[in-house]
Amino acid sequence: MACRECITGSLHEGTPTGRVETVHGLLTYISEPPSDQPPKGIIIFIPDAVGWDFVNNRLLADKYAKGTNSRVYLPDFMNGTAIAQELFASMDILLTKSTWTNTLMKVPAFFQTLYHFIPFIIRNRQSVAEPIISTWTHALRANEASSLPVGAAGFCWGGKYVFLLCRDSEKAANGKSLIDCGFTAHPSNLVIPADAEAVKLPCSVSVGDIDLALPLAQVTQTKEIFEKKNRDEGAKHEVVIIPGATHGFAVRGNPYEEKAIEHGRQAETQAIDWFNKWFAKGTS
User: Fold this and answer.
1) pLDDT tens track for 40-64
2) DSSP state of 33
């Protein structure tokens, strides 16, 4: 399920280096590999609740493009209905210990949070979002990614759809799997054990041991399911548990806290290593 930490976090400093184009009907942020290098693969970046134009997501997409020599697509799968980053301030007020001076401030902050968060949940529920992501990915695989390996990277809200794509339940018009591998950090809205048991394509999960959206018992269960698949089916999945990391650490961690920086770095390295490993094997 979604949690309060889905709409908390910090803004990161930096200027995204990519460009915006309309790709298969959706506004899309595109980050290219370093100059003069043809892409080794394509990464579909499925964002957290703050969406495709959140600067943190774009900066991370740039890092993935550079670290994997790949082209990264970050589409607006939410069609303009992402959570406004201004809600971070409202959540900070709500989560601050109540005092005589801030109690009155909590009332408007509470209603502002409901005003934004409830419509987001309704407009981006699975029955709405899954067909959008599937249709867009079908088009990408049949065109730009027809001869390149494809990975999906999902965070928070987007993590669910990495699990769904890794089921390999759909094929593109050219007969290929829609993606070749997936990575997710702090996924939300998972149904465990069902979502983990259905995974077939290589899937890597980075998660903290303090995550309200995916409790440690479910993380451990997912890890056990993946390890059994690896033993029994020769599958290649992994769950990396980062001690002390909380929900959102891969995207929205505090850039002034050393532990938060390190947690984010660990997830970034895990994702880049995973994509490099599977892109080197080519496309299915």
Assistant:
1) 999 999 999 999 999 999 999 999 9
2) P
CB 132 within 8 A of CB 77: yes
pLDDT of residue 112: 66
Question: Token pair 């799997």 is at which residue?
Answer: 177
**Residue whose token pair is 């496309």:** 283
Contact 162, 119 (CB under 8 A): no
Q: Report pLDDT for 282.
A: 83
d(CA 98, CA 95): 8
Find out whether 186 and 47 touch, Cβ atoms under 8 Å: no
Q: Which residue stretches of the chain are H helix?
A: 55-68, 87-95, 103-123, 126-142, 159-165, 194-197, 216-233, 249-252, 258-279
Burial of 108 per CB tally in 10 Å (0-12, 13-18, 19+)? exposed
For residues 150-161, average pLDDT: 97
| Pick from 212, 12, 5: nearest CA to 95 | 5
Exposure of 83 in the CB half-sphere (CA atoms within 13 A):
28
Q: What is the pTM of this model?
A: 0.90
Total residue count of the chain as it appears in this document: 284
Reading the block at residue 32, the tokens are 């290219």
Q: What are phi and psi of 12, to 5 degrees?
A: -100, 150
Task: Determine the Cα angle at 152 with ends 53 and 166, to 5°.
Answer: 140
Please report, rounded to a whole number, the percentage of residues in the chain having pLDDT higher than 70: 86
Residues 6+ apart with CB under 8 A from 9: 50, 56, 88, 248, 251, 252, 253, 254
The answer for residues whose C-beta is within 8 angstroms of residue 230's C-beta and 6 or more apart is: 236, 237
Give 252's pLDDT tier (boundaries 50, 70, 90).
Answer: confident
